[in-house]
Every structure is written in structure tokens, then in C-alpha cells.
Amino acid sequence: MTTGRIIVLFVLAAIAEIGGAWLIWQAVRENRGWLFALLGIVALGAYGFIAALQPDANFGRVLAAYGGVFVAGSLAWGIVVDKFQPTLWDYVGSAVALLGAAIIIFAPVVTTSSE
């Protein structure tokens, strides 16, 4: 259940952060209006709360692992929403980023004993 929770929270965080950034981009770069910017700000705030729900208590680890999800999620957003055509290197980079994220967040916890 924990693995599923981690993945769901990362996906929700990516949707909130990437969607929020996209909304602000639309407001500023595409002149879509202040409502887009306001909705973007709300979505970015939601991202912060969603990230804080991760079961790992280490902020740096959670955000480092999320970085890989953000890379892949941003390209996926571009493909679906903006009809972006990624290159082979975009896919390879995303795979490497996701592998790095998995290594960070799913690595076994190692404890040291003082003898």
C-alpha cells in the first residue's frame, strides 16, 4: 500500500505543479487573463500540500525523487496538452530521471549500529 500511495501522491503532485505552472504560463505568455494566473497559483499551492503527504519524513529525499517525476510528467503534459513531439533523447532522459527517482525513494533504509 505504501508504494501505491507514494506513486499516487507523486502523480497528483505532478498534475498540480505542472498544471499550475502551465496555467500561469498561459496567463503571462499567451495573454489568457488573470483567472488563469489565479488558478495556477492555487494549483501550485495544492502541489505543496500534496508533496507534504508523502510517507517519507525527509523533505530533501521526497523533493529529489519528485524531480524525476516532474521531468517525465512535464514531457507527458507537453505531449498531451501542447501536442509536443519528443525526441528519442527526451524519452531516454525521462527514463533516466524516473529511474533516479525510484532509486532515491524506494531504496532500502540502511541503519548503522554503533559498536
TrEMBL record:
Keywords: Cell membrane, Membrane, Transmembrane, Transmembrane helix
Transmembrane segments: 6-25, 34-53, 59-81, 88-110
An annotated GO cellular component: plasma membrane
Mode of membrane association: Multi-pass membrane protein
Domain of life: Bacteria
Claim: Transmembrane is one of the keywords in the record: yes
Chief localization: membrane
Pfam short name (any one): UPF0060
This protein's record includes keyword Cell membrane: yes
UniProt-annotated location(s): Cell membrane
NCBIfam families tied to this protein: PRK02237.1
Family: Belongs to the UPF0060 family.
Protein name as annotated: Small multidrug resistance family-3 protein
Protein's organism: Microbacterium marinum
